[in-house]
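> agent: user asked for a holo structure of the chain below bound to magnesium ion. Plan: (1) validate sequence alphabet, (2) canonicalize SMILES, (3) run complex prediction with ligand conditioning, (4) return tokens. Step 1... ok. Step 2... ok. Step 3 dispatched.
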Amino acid sequence: MSQMPDLPTQLLEQLRSGDRVALSRAITLVESTRAADMPGARNLVRNAMQTGNASVRVGITGIPGVGKSTLIDVLGSHLIGMGHRVAVLAIDPSSTRTGGSILGDKTRMERLAGEENAFIRPSPSGGNLGGVARRTREAMILCEAAGYDRILIETVGVGQNEAAVDQLTDLNLLLMIGGTGDSLQGIKRGIMEAADVIAINKSDGDNDRRNRRAAMDLRQAIALLPPRESGHRPPVLLCSAITGMGIEALADELENAALRDHVSGHGRHRRQEQARWWMRTTVEEALVDGFYNDPRIRNALPALEERVRNGEMNPFDAARELLRQYGHGE
Ligand SMILES: Nc1nc2c(ncn2[C@@H]2O[C@H](COP(=O)(O)OP(=O)(O)OP(=O)(O)O)[C@@H](O)[C@H]2O)c(=O)[nH]1
Ligand SMILES: [Mg+2]
């Protein structure tokens, strides 16, 4: 009797042959937090990583309502027109996404949702940012194994997101709108420093003049920032996800930046450093988990925390005491 291949192996074969249902199921498996699913999920990702393809991973960041989903719809369609296969993922750790908001995104991405060469997946829900980002990274690897070569990751720019998102992407596109106070003052420096390309969206109708002005201000501000590690400062473009103005130029800018980073070796270097970061982060998370789940720590923690809160004990002494009980330190 021939042995049945296990589910992860089967899923990988199916998703590689273009089966979208298998891809969805594979992503669900790696997003699962059930202990029983973990070995299979790990195996799946490990094998998927060996496929390797010349993908470009683009993070799309910007405040809520700036037009990220609408832009992804037109940009993604444009990339498909250029012969690419586009996967859209989202990172939104704040929301426990319900069917409603998934639907919301899909209606914003109506064009893409109907494309054979597009795959749209909402944010994994729940958990901390690190966990959400890790699951998104794994979903991305599965999409690449399924032949998607342009990965667009929508993420809300709330600042703390940026570090982990920067560990997922080859390029970051920052979307802004002019004249709303977020144009210069409100936007966090860190967010701007992580941008490879900046586009001022909603450059249509009455906004047009205001956006041109914002673009000029922004270019001046950027000239004062240090360049990205790639050696470049982000260009500032104007676009409208509604009229399509500037979308082609934006796609060209992203494609050129990807090519430039490939040729210079920066792209490879960036992924190597990301791999290192994920290794260290995974170790750190496991150590912290192990610590807080240790019976000795669970036992000692509440009382010590109470004493720290009351000011009876200083936090450093309490930390040292916990570490001592864990078998660390003097
Ligand atoms: N005039 C104009 N409106 C736009 C443009 N792009 C998006 N919008 C509108 O702005 C609103 C928000 O667009 P979304 O694409 O949902 O924005 P988002 O950044 O994805 O929002 P969140 O996912 O909630 O963070 C919608 O009503 C869009 O129709 C644009 O280029 N011009
Ligand atoms: Mg959106």
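> agent: step 4 complete. Summary for user: The chain has three domains: 1-50, 52-264, 279-325. The chain has a mean pLDDT of 87.
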